[in-house]
Amino acid sequence: MSYDMFEGNDGMRDGEVTNWLNSRGTGSVLTVAAAKDLAHRSPLGWYIAPHSQDRFCVGKLTLEKLASRHMVTDEAGKALAFPTIEAAKRFMKEQLGIVTPQVFDY
User: Fold this and answer.
1) Whose CA is closest to 102, among 62, 48, 66, 54?
2) Phi-psi category of 26—alpha, beta or left, where left has phi over 0 and alpha has psi -120 to 50?
3) Could you tell me the pTM of the whole model?
4) What residue segments make up the domains of the chain, in order of their start?
């Protein structure tokens, strides 16, 4: 099994992503502006997942740690929530340049 997408083939090793999020996120969150920069540096490992009732969030996976700071947030630190998977995909494509996010829709 290969973990290439987490081992730097997209510009950042897994630990570097976590360190980047810690040092460049606004406080302990990943704002839209920071997500745009991160997506440019590290385009693999982005996801869409269920969030609260009938909403979906977007974020960046790492093997080292999956935490709330890896979810894209608004300036107030609240997770961006989209009404549909398609709306989340559109945001990721238009705002982050991510065209093939992993979708968790359990």
Assistant:
1) 48
2) beta
3) 0.78
4) 4-103
pLDDT tens-digit series, residues 38-83: 899 889 889 999 988 889 999 988 766 555 457 898 888 889 999 9
Q: Residue 92 corresponds to which amino acid?
A: M
Q: Quickly list DSSP for the chain.
A: ---GGGBTTTS-BHHHHHHHHHHHSBTTBEEHHHHHHHHHH--SSEEEEE-STT-EEEEE--SS---GGGBEE-TTSPBP-BSSHHHHHHHIIIII---S-EE---
With the C-alpha atoms ordered 21, 104, 82, 91, is the resulting torsion angle positive or negative? Answer: positive
Give dist(CA 8, CA 22) in Å, integer: 18
Phi-psi region of 11 (alpha: psi -120 to 50; beta: other; left: phi over 0): left
What's the token pair of residue 43?
């385009």
Angle between helices 14-24 and 32-41 (to 10 degrees): 150
